[in-house]
Amino acid sequence: MLNEARLYMIERKFIEDHIKSLEIEEYLAKVLEKADYSHTDIQITPLSTRLVVHVGRPGIAIGRAGKNIEMITNILSEKFGVKNPQLDIQSIENPDLDATYVAHQISSAIERYVKPNRITNIYLRNIMRAGAYGAEIQISGKISGGRGRTDKKQVGYIKKSGEFVIDNVDRGFSVARMKPGVLGIKVMIMKNLPESMLIEKRIKDAAIAVAKEAADKKAAERKAKEAKADEKAEPKDDKKVDDAKEDKADDKKEVKKEIKKESKAEPKKEEKKATVKKEKETKAVKDVKDKKETVKKEKAKVAKPVDKKETTKKEVKKEEVVTEKKVADKVKATKKEETKAVAKEEKK
After folding, report:
1. Within a 13 Å sphere around the CA of 96, how many CA atoms are in the beta-carbon half?
2. Digits of tens for pLDDT over the chain (348 positions)?
3. 164: number of Cβ within 10 Å
4. 161: exposed, middle or buried (Cβ count in 10 Å: 0-12, 13-18, 19+)
5. For residue 43, what are the contacts with CB-CB under 8 A and spacing of at least 6?
6. How many helices (H) and strands (E) does the chain have?
7. Residue 153 in 3-state DSSP?
8. What is the CA radius of gyration of the chain?
9. Among residues 18, 131, 144, 25, which one has the least CA distance to residue 76?
10. Is 109 left (phi over 0), alpha (psi -120 to 50) or beta?
11. CA–CA gap between residue 104 and residue 174 (Å, rounded)
């Protein structure tokens, strides 16, 4: 009976201490909500109780000249009965692997009217980049519309039950207060893998390494065989080598001769082009002179005296216009013939 009573008293004491620690955590979470509160580690010693508070923004938690620390220590000693409390505020080492911090960040972003789907995708990427093996984010409430629902997104591998979950899966919860209602946000992050899965992974890595080594050995053996085959091949005769050199020298001489011929032929082509241009210019000048003379003759014919009864001033003007049109048509026809002739000469 005495042993049972002692065990009952010990259990009762453990339960009371655990309840007290939960109450302290709830109080600190309310007070340090703006400082991105994560969790507290309580260390009880004979002289004092040390409270290590992990926060995303330690400057806000400390306050000006440590006013917040003094206020919190006084409340912990008076309200919760903590003996000689000592606060130690520290920043989170890796915030992307802290579930409560991630949940608070998601809730604050949703309260700023950012789409939940977008935020969950961003934080899942950040968690996996930080080195987690798996993550899950669950948002429940009136996300869009009048009815409530739950959106769940998971990346990687997560265990949700068993003893392994207690030590290696971090859980966090936060609330986003919106106009249509409250949204609950749950975050789960798996930081380590179970031993069975680690063994499988090691076996796979070892098998891959062995396969790579075997492939490298085969490649080295092939290269060695090819090198030996090249050495065994018969060397070329000296006569054949000399003949090949002479052929190359003859080819170079022929190429040089052809280049010289082309260089001599180029100035002749330029001279021909210059003479053709001069001939074209002289032809154009002669054609212009002939056209002017024909125009003058036709105007002189029109200007001859005509009987007053037969012609009038209007008829004379009409005749002049007709003659000018005829002359213009002739000029155009001559130009077309010239262009065709020049194109033919250039092709030749």
Report:
1. 14
2. 445 656 666 777 778 888 888 888 888 888 888 888 888 888 888 888 888 989 888 888 888 888 888 888 888 888 888 888 888 888 888 889 999 999 999 999 999 999 999 999 999 999 999 989 899 999 999 988 778 899 999 999 888 888 888 888 999 999 999 988 899 999 999 988 877 666 767 777 888 888 888 888 888 888 888 887 777 665 544 455 556 666 667 766 776 777 766 665 555 556 666 777 777 777 777 777 777 777 777 766 655 444 444 446 666 677 777 777 777 777 777 777 777 777 777 665
3. 15
4. exposed
5. 49, 50, 51, 52
6. 9, 7
7. strand
8. 50
9. 25
10. alpha
11. 6
- Hey, what are 114's tokens? 């950012």
Both tokens of 150, joined, read 């739950």
Please give the single-letter amino acid code of residue 96. Answer: D
| Whole-number Å distance between alpha carbons of 302 and 316 | 7
